[in-house]
Amino acid sequence: MLQIPISTGGGNHIAETVNVGGTGLAIRLLWNERDGHWFADFESSLGKNFGIRIIPESPLLKSSNRVLPEGDLVLLRNAASGTEQPGYSNLGTEWGLYYVDGEDAKMLHSYGVI
């Protein structure tokens, strides 16, 4: 499992490029004020996944994964305490974005996390 460094820095738009499992991954996160959720676009040389609502403790790419064929992305709680849901100001602090490979996903699933 690999934590992907993200920081909102108080803004409503984040753009990062990271190396995940040997694949360059462009990440764009956008805060939707009306909906009260973060949305994401993910792009690699393998494909694109756009307009994904960030749902905590759930595989974000699932069966439509076109960017990371060897794994998935999941938002997990970093802090034992704090807010129940990721919000405008706690993404990257209380909640972190993680890359999980197949084995990590099986382990998290067995513990009821995803």
TrEMBL record:
Residues 1-101 form the Cyanophage baseplate Pam3 plug gp18 domain. It holds the Pfam family Pam3_gp18. This is Cyanophage baseplate Pam3 plug gp18 domain-containing protein. It comes from Fibrobacter intestinalis.
